[in-house]
Amino acid sequence: MLQRIQTIYLVLTFAVTAIVFFFFPLWTFEDQKPFYFMENQLYVVLLGLSTVLSVLSIISFKKRQNQFVMNRLNMILNLILLGLFVYRSLNISGETPVVSEKGIGMFLPIIAIVLLVLANKAIKKDEDLVKSVDRLR
Q1: 3-state SS track over the chain
Q2: CA 30 to chain centre
């Protein structure tokens, strides 16, 4: 059912990964030139996969185990994306004489991971409830 709490968490994850990344830069250089994730093809591929997994997880609400696995894969993708952001951020600020300012876009994978963890907790709760009802029959 689409009105469950995990669907709300997954829709918020989709919003963070798909919509918000277009508007928030990852970091800004001293010359006020923002760096968006779209400037690196690897970021686009990983973020696209994360967005697709969020949508597939929302659609597969009848298969809770598949939804749970897709959310775990999505968490792994977001952790990889966060690691790449941190690595790139450390390289940029260490190599160039220009001081860079980190943007909020760099921390959005953390928000997505937290939302995915909350969705997985709700899915597990639903699965436990269904199993307990099946035992009573």
Answers
A1: CCCCHHHHHHHHHHHHHHHHHHCCCCEECCCCCEECHHHCHHHHHHHHHHHHHHHHHHHCCCCHHHHHHHHHHHHHHHHHHHHHHHHHHHHHHHHCCCCCEECHHHHHHHHHHHHHHHHHHHHHHHHHHHHHHHHHC
A2: 28
Q: Say which residue the tokens 């298969």 belong to.
A: 63
| Torsion over CA: 104, 90, 48, 109 (sign) | negative
pLDDT tens digits along 27-70: 666 666 766 666 777 878 888 888 899 999 999 888 888 999 99
Question: What does each C-alpha distance from 63 to 38, 66, 74, 78 come to in angstroms?
Answer: 33, 6, 16, 22
pLDDT confidence of residue 126: 86
How far is the first Cα of the chain from the last one, in angstroms, to the nearest whole number? 22
128 vs 103 pLDDT, higher one? 128
- Structure-block tokens of residue 61: 């609400």
